[in-house]
Amino acid sequence: MLATPAGTQPPTTPDGDRQPQPNRPGIAPLTPLQKKLALGISLGVTAIAGIGFAGSYNAVTNLARAKGFGGFSEVFTLGVDLGIAVFLALDLFLAWLRMPYPLLRQIAWVLTGATVCYNAAAAYPDELGMAMHGTIPLLFIGAVEAVRHALGRIADITEDRHIENPPLIRWLVAPASTFRIWRRMRKWHITSYVEAVRHQKEVKVYKAGLRNDYGRMWRTKAPADKLLVLTLAGYGMSVSNAVDLPRKEAAARAEEAHRAQLAEQKAAEARRLEQEAATAEAARIRAAAEAEKQRIAAEARRIAEEADRQRRLAEAREQAELARLQEEQRLAKAKAEAEAQRIAEETEAARRLRAAELDAQQRTIEEQQRLAALKAQADAAAAQAEIDRLAAQTEADRRIELARAKAEEDRIAAEARAAETKRREEDRRRAEAARRLAPRAASASPEPASAPATPGASGSANANGASQSAPASASSTATSRPATSSPRATAPVASANAASGGGIDLEDVVATYQALMERNGKAPSDAVLGEALGVSRSRAQQLRTAAIEAGHTELAKPLRLAS
C-alpha cells in the first residue's frame, strides 16, 4: 500500500466523517501458474496493442497523405497514437503523486475518439469498412486502458474513486428509483452501490417509522429534529449518522467546552507559576542586593579600620622619629657645650690663632663663592654661545638649502639653454652641409653619362656620399642623445678634435660613459671610465672634459654642496 503523502487527507463522507477504508490484504505473491498466465496475458496484450497501433498507423497515415499532409503524415499519426498512451501515463503518474489532473484523461479520450474517427473515415463511404477500420484502434486503446487500470489498482491510487453502476436488472424493474440512486451516488460520490441501496432502505424504514408514530400527516406533525434526519439523508448522509449527529454535536460542544476549561486551567496554572517564579526571582534579587549591601558595608568597615591602623602606625613612627631627633639634638647640644667649655679653657694665644684661622677660612669661603659665581657666569655665556652657534648653524643650513635649490634651478636652466644651443648648432651644421653639397650636385647634373668614365670620379662620388652620410649620422646621433647644455657652440668642435687626437673618439667616450651609468645605476668615476677605455685616470678626465665642452653635458658630475 502507498502511504498518504504529507498534506493529503483521506476521503470523507458528506456528513464530515472519514469514509471507512477497506482493510483488504496486500497483493499476495503470484503462484507459478499465475506467473505463467500473467506472462501469456502480457504477451497477448502487447501483440493486440501492436496490431492495433500498426493498423491505425497505416490507415491514418494514408488518410493524412490523401488530405495533403505530405511528409508530415507519419509524424502526425505517431503524435495522435502515442499521445493517448502518454497522456494516460501522465494522468496515472500525477494520480500516484496525489496530484490528479482530470483534463489529461479527458484529452486522452478525445484523442481516442479522434483516432477512431480517422480510421473510420479512411474507408468512407463503405460502412462495413468504416466499422472494420474503427475496430482496429480499439485494440490499442483497450490494451492501454487495461494497463492503466491494473497499475492504478496495484499502486492503490484509484481505489475508492470508481463509482459503481446499478445492475442492469435494477434499471429494468425499477427505473425511477434506480435513477434516483444513480443520481445520488454521483452527486454525493458514493462509490458503493450496496452502500447507496442501504442508505435508501434506511430512509424508507425511517419514513415508515415516522408514519407509524405520527400518522399520515407525519410531515407536519413530526418535530423538526426528526425531519432534519431526512434532510440530511437527502445530502447523502446515512440515517444512522444523521440520527447521531445531534448527539455528536453535543459531544463535540462538550468536548470543546472541556478543552476550553482545561486550557483555562492550564493558563491559570501557568499564570500562577509565572507569578510564583516572579516572586521568587524578586526575593532572590532582594536577597542578592542585601548581601551585596552587607558585603560593601563590611568592605567599607575593613577599609576604614585599615586606614585607622595605618594612621596610628604613622603617628607612632612620627613620634619615635621626633623623640630620636630631640635626643640627638640634646646630645649634640651637650657635646657642643662641653666642646665650648674646653675651647674656653684654652690659652689666649690659641684663641687668637683660632681667630686667625677663622679669618683665613672666611676669606677662603668668599673666594670659593666668587669663583663659583664666575663659573656660573662662564656657564651661562657658554650656553648662550651654544644657542648662538645652533642658530647660526640653522641659518647656514637654510642658506645651503637655498643655494642648493638655486644651483639646481641654474643647472636646469643651463641644461635647457645648452639643449637649445645644441639644437641650433645641429641645424647650422645641417645647413652648412647642404650648402657645401649644393654646388657639387649642380656641377654633376649636366654630365650624367661621363660619371663612370674615370675612377677618380667614382672616388669623388664615394667621398660625396660619405660626406652626405656624415651629417645624417651626426644628426641621428644628436637626436638619440638627451638634450644637454653648453653655452659655447663652435669652440667644442675644435677642443673635441684636439682631445681625440689620441685615437679615441668622443662618441666612444660618451657611449662608454652611458653604458657604465646604466650598468652601475650611478655616474662612473674617472678611474672606472679610464679602465673601461684603456687609458689613465687623468686621460679619462681630459676626455670627459672634452666631451662636456663638445656639448655632452650629461657627462658632467652633479654639484656637491657641503651640508
TrEMBL record:
Annotated segments matching region Disordered: 1-27, 415-501
Compositionally biased residues, Basic and acidic residues: 415-435
Transmembrane segments: 37-55, 75-95, 107-124
InterPro entries: DUF2637 (IPR021235)
Source organism superkingdom: Bacteria
Ranges of compositional bias, category Low complexity: 1-10, 439-499
Keyword terms: Membrane, Transmembrane, Transmembrane helix
Descriptive protein name: DUF2637 domain-containing protein
Source species of the chain: Streptomyces thermolineatus
Organism lineage string: Bacteria, Bacillati, Actinomycetota, Actinomycetes, Kitasatosporales
